[in-house]
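Q: Structure for this?
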Amino acid sequence: MAPILDIKNLKKNYGSTEILKDINVSIEPGDFLVLVGPSGCGKSTLLNCIAGLEPITGGSISIAGQDMTEVSPKDRNIAMVFQSYALYPTMSVAKNITFGMKVRGVDQATQDKKLQEVAAQLQIEQLLNRRPGQLSGGQRQRVAMGRALVRDPALFLFDEPLSNLDAKLRVEMRTEIKKLHQNLNASMVYVTHDQIEAMTLATKIVVMKGGVIQQIGSPAEIYNRPANLFVADFMGSPAMNLIPAKTRANGGATEIVIDRPAAEPLVLKDTQNANLPADVILGLRPEDIAEAGYRSGDNVQTADCMVEMVEPAGADTYVVSHLGGKQVTARLHAETTATPGAALPMAFDLSKVSYFAPETGARLN
Amino acid sequence: MAPILDIKNLKKNYGSTEILKDINVSIEPGDFLVLVGPSGCGKSTLLNCIAGLEPITGGSISIAGQDMTEVSPKDRNIAMVFQSYALYPTMSVAKNITFGMKVRGVDQATQDKKLQEVAAQLQIEQLLNRRPGQLSGGQRQRVAMGRALVRDPALFLFDEPLSNLDAKLRVEMRTEIKKLHQNLNASMVYVTHDQIEAMTLATKIVVMKGGVIQQIGSPAEIYNRPANLFVADFMGSPAMNLIPAKTRANGGATEIVIDRPAAEPLVLKDTQNANLPADVILGLRPEDIAEAGYRSGDNVQTADCMVEMVEPAGADTYVVSHLGGKQVTARLHAETTATPGAALPMAFDLSKVSYFAPETGARLN
Amino acid sequence: MSEWLERHVPKVVLAPSFVAILFFVYGFIAWTAWVSLTRSRLMPKYDIEGFIQYERLFAAPRWDTAMNNLFIFGTLFIVISMILGLLLAILLDQKIRTEGVIRTIYLYPMALSMIVTGTAWKWILNPGLGIEAMVRGWGYEDFKFDWLVNSDLAIYTVVIAGVWQSSGFVMALFLAGLRSVDGEIIKAAQVDGIPTWRIYSAIIIPSMAPIFLSAFIVLSHLAIKSFDLVIALTGGGPGYATDLPATYMYAMAFSRGDIGQAASSAMIMMAVVFAIVVPYLYSELRAAKND
Amino acid sequence: EPQAEVLHWWTSGGEAKSVAVLQEEFAANGGTWTDMPVAGGGGDAAMTALRARVLSGNAPTAVQLKGPAIQEWYEEGVLADISAVAEAENWANLLPASIAAHMQCEGSWCAAPVNVHRVDWIWANADILEANGIEMPTTWDEFNAAAEKLQAAGITPLAHGGQAWQDATVFETVVLGVGGPEFFHKALVELDQDALTSDTMVAVFDQMRTMRGYVDDNFSGRDWNLATAMVMNGEAAFQIMGDWAKGEFMAAGKVPGEDFLCASTPGDGYLYNVDSFAMFDVDGDDKVAGQALLAELIMGPNFQEVFNLNKGSIPARTDVDLAAFDVCAHTSAEDMSGTSERGSLLPSYAHGMALRGAQSGAITDVVTAHFNSDMSSADAVQMLADAVANSM
Amino acid sequence: MTDMTVTNARSGGLSKIALRWILYILLGIFALYYLMPLFVMLTTSLKSLDEIRTGSLVALPRDVTFDAWRTAWSGACTGIQCEGLQPYFWNSVLIAVPAVMISTLLGAMNGYVVAQWRFKGANIIFSLMLFGCFIPFQVVLLPMATTLGKLGLAGTIPGLIFVHVVYGLGFTTLFFRNYYVTIPQELVKAAKVDGAGFFRIFWSIFLPLSLPIIVVTVIWQFTQIWNDFLFGVSFSQAGTQPITVALNNIVNSTTGVKEYNVDMAAAIIAALPTLLVYVVAGKYFIRGLTAGSVKG
Ligand SMILES: Nc1ncnc2c1ncn2[C@@H]1O[C@H](COP(=O)(O)OP(=O)(O)OP(=O)(O)O)[C@@H](O)[C@H]1O
Ligand SMILES: Nc1ncnc2c1ncn2[C@@H]1O[C@H](COP(=O)(O)OP(=O)(O)OP(=O)(O)O)[C@@H](O)[C@H]1O
Ligand SMILES: [Mg+2]
Ligand SMILES: [Mg+2]
């Protein structure tokens, strides 16, 4: 099947500033593509280019097999949900949703039918006569979705649609969007700042930085095998621990040596990866460091560590200690007895360890 | 020791609308009190009343043992950090921080010393000559903190100071505030929307709703023993599963019966709690439902459940199924093989179970 | 074709206004520049004669007076209107119960043209009829307020009436500005222990810089164009002590039948406008580029 | 059917009534009169409107114009020729020569005179003069002496409104009185540099400075009619003003010769201010017919009598019966014919009869600047010469 | 915002009350300054001519009479017609209403383009238009007269409307532009994706949003146009003269008898519509200014 969205060598400049540099992405029908990256990296710009709201400087964009590079937004068969919702402030919810159909000359009966359908789906039937100003954030968000849903487009574009919501509502809406995607089997491009959102929603994640794509892959790939230091640090919360270390070969295995303040270096043995350079940066997620006795497996090794700070967070407790000159966070179970200033035996699970080159930041294993 | 803040029977009306109804809170020196509650519940109003920025309708407020009910804000010996930071837009960072001291007639040398101290603490030395407009959100936040810190007040008030930051920065700043609290051993009142923030920072949490305090307690109390359905649902992310169930006594233990669609009811046995009414709402956190074999203990029981949706989220994977007419979320390890539509054996850990009365919502155990 | 139209519709919409301005403002300025180089008298003539009109202009003592007056009047008018407007805005911002009424009282002079109010002001300021006579009538025989009839001071009465007319509008601008300052900043300052007057002087007022700029532009526009004001109040007198460039130009063009001279004075006036507006536009454009 | 759109600045009650007479006659002769009044600044605003109208190719049919301005507009080639009417009615013989000259442009007739205002009048409050034993002055020295006496008695000698045109009005009567008719003609009609810089001119400015002392403190910007009211109310003794001031006295019910006195200002001569209508080039037979009819009616004896009775001036044509007119008008008429013979019937510079706008304006600038400051007479003379030169 | 005085209202000591009094006294004094001319005009208009000649101008009338008002409205002579201001009043309405509407609408469109549909050079065009606000009107009188003649609009009401629209454009565009730049660009984008075009977006989305700024613009334009004398006197002819010209004819006659009471009554009548607009819409005026036009 032809890709639903195919971006080739896309370039976008504002004046002489290059905002997007040679972007190549393609997604299949039914894909849920999530764009992540730090603020200002060009996510919204890319979305705007796809929608045709910004002229592009180079490359091509095709949607559902048709070259759309020069086509105006209204003919691209897309629907877009904006970060700020961009609801029409003077129109009622119903009119907000039907405005697009009205503009397109859809007949009144169809408009009403569609409106009822979508309103039911989003549970906003009782709000149809209100103005956007009289809605809560979550309700607005649903109206913005509704405006997109009545369209039945080839492609949905979402620009951080949940960023204005409070945590609770965000979780609910996230589930809602996920269901929507599954029910409609629609193709979506979704921008977010929130890694959890990215991880839970995406079938494919694109990590960008400074207008350049850093990695494209499934959520698991991005999470478990980040392509470089930037991705490793960016994805996951709390972030992956990135610890400078030295390696030395020891038989078939590799020994990883990590400096510790006022104590002997910590030595871990990795049996899976060989041929590493002498200096590496070791990447280990907080959940791969547990309290000794709470984790087992081939690659688990135990060592005492000095606890600096304890942060209980309900379901888990995070413990911070110092390794290799860095603060290292471990995720412990909620009932841990760890106390700041005391040593605690910790289990390091190396089965999903990552290594990066200190100079280039590229992944080594 | 006298409480540092003591609020007695505080009432606050706007016109004829009661915004705060009979609030009683008291905190000890060094306490970190976090106020949480849904939008519009009166958190900011309460903070403003404490600061003296809003006249109160009834009751009294004393700070550090002195009745402050009638005292103007500047004489209350408090410092406040606002949600929008409220930096003085035309002054440099240095002037923003020192302006209050200057007005109070603190001599130049002391001002400089204080400024240097605080700037070092917050790592904003290199920003001192910039204007607020030239700072990033996180930097602004730190300046706003700096303005409060030079004060050495009896009480710090924070109104959602992190809500404008992106997730990554928020985590960093949270740690920063936590350290600050530990180092200064200052007393703080902190408003937030974010439960993680509440859980990690607080020594004491106040949950409010509609101007009424729902529960006051330590984070662990609030998390593990919510006083009512509202608190149970509000705190924790994903939220606690609240499942309608029937109970029947069976010997010394209680049997909990939960309806399931297209399957036999699920029966769990609780040996800890007795004398429950026939109808209850069972509260179980997602992390207390695991994949069978991954959890053990006295109160763990296993049952097959139909999986509806699987949400991998990096460190964990959430699985949704249907129980008692509700969606129930379980937190599974990341490598789970659960697939939507298939049955999965799940372990229910009842050691921290909560029961609520369906009518009043009050906690039963 | 329709594709083209669709893409260019904004330009097409702007075009008529733009062309109108181009022709009716810039075209006419060019026309005036041309005429200023001729010996046009009663009616415009188009034979260029060089800069004689400018030479005549700079030789005329009356023009000197007019420019001097513009300087005195402009400076005082703008400064006083701003200060008074700001003061009134601050006073009105203190949760005044009758704000609506008082605001209307301050604002209404803007609604009246000077043709209307000039006579009233003339009487009020006239020593024999107005304030001086009234105060003397109360028994203060030595009271003196005769600026209107004093060649050296008459220009200040023009300032008084001008301020009367415009300061309400400036107040409205500042009041709007005060109302849009973030309330949390003020709360923060209160908690910081800053007294009210320092909150205004050190925090609010400095943050209203754009409004000062707007007010300045509106006021300088009024100052330069002030014509009715002078005609109605003093008629340019005593003598021509209160002449302004605008009245000078009008007199030349229409009562004296000396259009060439009028055109040259208009060009100088426009140069003054230019000197004020261009920096403003520059900052405006830069701001637009930044956002 | 004759049509006329008439641009004029006679808008106030008395003036308007006077014009209405013309309009009625016009209508009685089957014409349609469209009124286009524009008041203000002694016709400045009307001139503004006229210029715009001419430039837009939409000139009014008839326009209140006077003095050299008629010739100026003629030179722009926009005036119509009404010689046919004038010659048929034999205007040349009905008008004093110097006034007729104003109505002619390069030999053809281009305007019709309505009235003759005398400018060099001095008005006085009869009671005050009697109480202080003062006669109407016939020389400036007498005037000065009388003024000193009045001042000593606590009466403001001269009621004056400090507006440029009023200053200029006083100035020209002083020029006429101090320098005589010939000097007046040389200085203010021919703009002879020698005359302008002569010692006589210095003396004129000296007299102006003296007169400044006779004026009360609040004169600046005062309307002329308020000054007249001061004379009426006994606050001041004299006013120097054209004969339209009479209308103000009459309106207040005062009787000439009893309540108030009129006399020409000291010195020989007669300064006239002739209102007239010029006809503009217009398209359309009805309008051209309107112009002819209007010209004829304006010079008609009936209109000349009625209009001038209303307005306080005297008829421009010399053959009108003056029986219905008051004593001041009689004086004016006699003086007009007398001075006309003696060659001292002179155009008023202050009212735009003598000079073109630029020059008269330049002179007024100096006069008013001198009068309203403590400039020395010598400086004023120098400035006057410079200003006149600069205005050429 | 600044509710500084409300804070601790309960603790209002003596000094607080004193401050409050000083505040009101100050406001009152300024109110006197602003009201004085109106007071003089009003009292004079209610006096008889005799009383004006003899009494003090700033005194209250001894016998109140409304004759002057009647005369001014329907009896005063503005030339040979003695119909008062009445006919001219309607001329002004016929000029001001369409001119205000057209210039506001055009300003709205222009502001919409400049703020929301930026294209290359839009800013330059905007600044050029802005400069148009500052041109002294005397400068344009003569060339404009020629142009109007060429257009066949000389002396007509459409001609006057045209002139006012042209020279009002700078300000109306400025007002709308400054208002529309505060509206997020996303709104246009959303509507574009919805399939709406330029005019549709303006009409359905921006215009309904613009009430505050429309109020500001209409007040400003109405005041300017209603009070205009220079254009009114230059580009009108008999039958199309606006009220300011008639007012001027009543007030400014040179050699006639002056009826000050009628003058003042006429002045007030001529100002009534603008006064009314300020009183009625004054509240929205501040609000509109707050809503955005204040910025630079
Ligand atoms: N109209 C414009 N002119 C010039 N530069 C622009 C313009 N719009 C955006 N930019 C720049 O382009 C870059 C990318 O902006 P974009 O809005 O795409 O970022 P983003 O990834 O969406 O960030 P965020 O997460 O904060 O929304 C930024 O550096 C921004 O400053
Ligand atoms: N000045 C006011 N006048 C009337 N009602 C007000 C005023 N300020 C706040 N309220 C109302 O008081 C209630 C509490 O407001 P408050 O700002 O304290 O909420 P909050 O808990 O801080 O909410 P959020 O989390 O959204 O900041 C709200 O319902 C609000 O509408
Ligand atoms: Mg973005
Ligand atoms: Mg709040």
